[in-house]
Amino acid sequence: MSFKSELLHPLFSIKGFSYGPSDLLVFAQQLIKNGEAYEISIGQFFINWLNSSATLFLSTSGTTSESKQLEVSKTSMVAHAKMSASYFSLKPGHKILHLLSSDFIAGKMILVRAMVLGLDLWFYPPSKAPLASLDKVYDWAALVPLQLAHSLNDLYKVKKILIGGAALTSKLKDTALLKAKEQQTSLYLSFGMTETLSHIAIALLETNEEPLFKVLPGIIISKNAQDCLEIHAAYLGNTVIQTSDLIRLQSPNSFYWLGRADFTVNSGGVKLQPERIEKELSPFLNIPFFIFGIPDEILGSRLCLVVCQQHKKLAIKALETAIFSHPYYAPKSILMVNEFLYTSSEKIKRKNSLSFGFKELVIKS
């Protein structure tokens, strides 16, 4: 099979209509000329995918640092698409939904999977409640947690839903699982990044179970001296990707995600993981928030709860009623900012959100 034929499967279709290379280029040009912003991004990607270049440029999300440009090979993207399809048992003709931004890796790889695997692609504007207006049943879709939260009564419209892009609160997970069981839909949690061309591990969500991520076929994982995940993937070449994700290895091909090492708060010599504390606090605080450490002369770092100014009373009440598994997990202060800054995938930019200043309320112990 030639490289060009690998880029576009003969059975690829969009909303039931087949598209060969020349047809797809014409369609892409129409999207760019007459489409909405999200359609222009899709059209531009189709053109870039079918051009003579063997590589594409991707932008990282900018969650923990400034967004940067990466040059990746189309061959690597094809290989990843096939690995992902194998896990989800996607076959030519399966209907998949595209409800994300095509400016970043998750959205781009949905397009790649459809073209490479001969899937039937259905795309709609990225929105809070993207399933509400749909009247068909689809085989697969990817949602961010915000979209999941606004689609709980429409989960039956998709057989398999992959959730990614941001953390999933315990409350949303439990509610979504209950709804998914009633509607006979399977929910999965993704782990990946731009550098790995989307997900390299998937966790099937189950009630009362901590998500156990299992790597895709061909992925080898390990952890370094700092307990951070290392990823070895043949489709990415010989490079070993060093992450800042703290993990607990369950087996040679599975792991539990503990949080980000670059968010760790060292308070009085005790290393505290914000994501774990956020999980314990989320049942008591149903608003956007995060845990952060700021300099402290005695402790080194002071553990803080960060909220928007208008949610001050809710934050105080939550800390009065919350039950933490360890006394060290109780924040010492509440930091109040005017607004949160978000990435395109709805992750809070923690440092950036605090960079414009904050008010502090010290919690009396």
Topology, element by element:
Blueprint: H1 3-7, E1 13-14, E2 17-18, H2 21-34, H3 37-50, E3 55-59, E4 69-73, H4 74-88, E5 95-98, H5 105-117, E6 120-123, E7 138-143, H6 145-149, E8 158-163, H7 170-183, E9 186-193, E10 198-204, E11 213-215, E12 219-223, E13 228-233, E14 240-251, E15 254-260, E16 265-267, E17 270-272, H8 274-281, E18 290-296, E19 300-308, H9 312-321, E20 333-337, H10 350-354, E21 359-362
Parallel strand pairs: 1-6, 5-6, 7-8, 8-9, 19-20
Antiparallel strand pairs: 1-2, 3-4, 9-10, 10-11, 11-15, 12-13, 13-14, 14-15, 16-17, 18-19, 20-21
Key features of this structure:
21 strands, 2 domains, GMP Synthetase, Chain A, domain 3, 365 residues, alpha+beta, 9-stranded mixed β-sheet, Rossmann fold
Describe this structure in words.
The chain is α+β, with helices and mostly antiparallel strands and 365 residues long. It has two domains: 3-219 and 246-259, 3-Layer(aba) Sandwich (Rossmann fold), CATH 3.40.50; 264-362, GMP Synthetase, Chain A, domain 3 (2-Layer Sandwich). The chain contains ten helices and 21 strands. It has helices at 3-7, 21-34, 37-50, 74-88, 105-117, 145-149, 170-183, 274-281, 312-321, 350-354, and strands spanning 13-14, 17-18, 55-59, 69-73, 95-98, 120-123, 138-143, 158-163, 186-193, 198-204, 213-215, 219-223, 228-233, 240-251, 254-260, 265-267, 270-272, 290-296, 300-308, 333-337, 359-362. The strands form five sheets. The protein has a nine-stranded mixed beta sheet with strand order 7-8-9-10-11-15-14-13-12. A four-stranded mixed beta sheet has the order 2-1-6-5, covered by helices on one side. A four-stranded mixed beta sheet has the order 18-19-20-21. Helix 2 (21-34) packs antiparallel against helix 3 (37-50). The longest helix is centred in the N-terminal third of the chain and has 15 residues, at 74-88.
